[in-house]
């Protein structure tokens, strides 16, 4: 765009210099001042018209710019008036033709070129005596000008269209390359998932199945009076069954069993109720606010964080007597808090294993924030904040 403006300004200044310094000849001495004054006025109007409409039209799509048509209609008229005033005004037609082909599609540009050349020919015929042009010379010059303008315009338009086609082809190739890269990554992920699925099926799933059979056999051989042992065996059996279901869900790339047929609050409440039954700790789960639907990934993250927090209470919170869970829905997002009244731990020493590190990674993947530290009174607080 700066090139268009600079070229127009250069020709306008050159035309003005030629108008001011040009020699009108003795025959035109009486009217020279008036003609050159009128020419300078028309030149100023043409520059103002370009600044008001032409410069803006050149920034727009030529196939959909009505402003370009408005600019060219005024520019052709003003250029013809300038040429009618002084012969030096023909210099501004040098910029008019490129503007026509830059602002209009092919057929409209050809029509505008014919109209502009005809207006120039009309001026030469009308002022033939003043410009020293005979009718035959004016017609011949107009025909040559028209042919040259059309040939150059069509040629330049074809070059521009070829450049646009190449640009579109490059964009399509880039998009295709990105799609191929995405497909390749997805294929790699699927291959790795298939490998892990086979490993899980051949190891964990088979192992849990064997554990279930052994537990059934142990329960069958336990005395009916030994209720405590039978209770522990039942708990172990439920744990093995749940983990077998988890392993099968991973193999099939399905959502966790807890979330398949229940809402997130019900799934978390079920985990904490089972934790209370298995450990004997007093546990309470509360939901505040109006529950809203989260994305599947966000629900899985909150479920896994809860499972890991409860597992950590089992292993690392001796002396704990109570556990609390809060799932708070708010206007800015969802917050999950798991607290216990155990002895707590040093947060600086945590995060090196898969448990806490895995929780941090999971929460970060969905754009949340995980904080682990001492509770308000004692014990440990695990908090997840997911923005809405």
UniProtKB/TrEMBL annotation:
Xref: SUPFAM superfamilies: ATPase domain of HSP90 chaperone/DNA topoisomerase II/histidine kinase
Segments forming a coiled coil: 159-186
Enzyme class: transferase
Catalysed transformations (reactions): ATP + protein L-histidine = ADP + protein N-phospho-L-histidine
Residues spanning the membrane: 39-58, 70-97, 109-126, 138-156
Domain named Histidine kinase/HSP90-like ATPase: residues: 299-387
Annotated GO MF terms: kinase activity
Pfam families (alphabetical): HATPase_c, HisKA_3
Region forming the signal peptide: 1-29
Residues annotated as domain Signal transduction histidine kinase subgroup 3 dimerisation and phosphoacceptor: 192-259
Keyword field: ATP-binding, Coiled coil, Kinase, Membrane, Nucleotide-binding, Phosphoprotein, Signal, Transferase, Transmembrane, Transmembrane helix, Two-component regulatory system
EC number(s) from the headed UniProt entry: 2.7.13.3
Protein name: histidine kinase
Organism for this UniProt entry: Nonomuraea maheshkhaliensis
């Amino acid at each position: 765009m700066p090139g268009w403006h600079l070229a127009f300004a250069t020709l306008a200044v050159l035309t003005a210099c030629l108008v001011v310094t040009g020699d009108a000849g003795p025959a035109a001495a009486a009217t020279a001042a008036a003609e050159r004054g009128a020419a300078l006025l028309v030149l100023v109007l043409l520059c103002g018209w370009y600044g008001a409409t032409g410069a803006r039209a050149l920034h727009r799509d030529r196939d959909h710019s009505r402003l370009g048509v408005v600019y060219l209609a005024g520019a052709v008229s003003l250029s013809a008036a300038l040429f009618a005033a002084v012969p030096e005004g023909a210099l501004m037609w040098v910029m008019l033709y490129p503007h026509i082909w830059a602002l209009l599609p092919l057929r409209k540009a050809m029509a505008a070129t014919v109209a502009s050349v005809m207006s120039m020919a009309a001026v030469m015929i009308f002022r033939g005596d003043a410009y020293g042009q005979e009718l035959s010379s004016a017609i011949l010059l107009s025909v040559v000008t028209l042919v040259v303008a059309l040939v150059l315009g069509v040629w330049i338009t074809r070059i521009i269209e070829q450049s646009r086609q190449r640009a579109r082809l490059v964009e399509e190739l880039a998009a295709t390359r990105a799609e191929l890269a995405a497909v390749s990554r997805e294929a790699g992920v699927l291959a790795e998932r298939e490998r892990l699925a086979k490993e899980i099926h051949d190891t964990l799933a088979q192992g849990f199945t064997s554990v279930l059979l052994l537990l059934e056999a142990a329960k069958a051989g336990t005395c009916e009076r030994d209720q405590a042992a039978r209770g522990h065996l039942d708990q172990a059996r439920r744990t093995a069954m749940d983990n077998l279901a988890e392993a099968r869900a991973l193999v099939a790339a399905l959502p966790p069993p807890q979330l398949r047929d229940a809402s997130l609050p019900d799934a978390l409440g079920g985990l904490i109720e089972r934790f209370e039954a298995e450990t004997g700790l007093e546990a309470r789960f509360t939901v505040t606010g109006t529950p809203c639907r989260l994305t599947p990934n966000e629900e899985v993250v909150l479920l896994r964080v809860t499972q890991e927090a409860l597992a950590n209470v089992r292993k690392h919170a001796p002396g704990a007597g109570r556990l609390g869970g809060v799932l708070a829905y708010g206007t800015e997002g969802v917050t999950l808090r798991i607290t216990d009244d155990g002895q707590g731990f040093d947060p600086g020493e945590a995060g090196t294993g898969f448990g806490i590190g895995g929780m941090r990674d999971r929460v970060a993947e969905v754009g949340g924030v995980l904080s682990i530290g001492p509770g308000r009174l004692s014990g440990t607080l695990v908090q997840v904040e997911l923005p809405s």
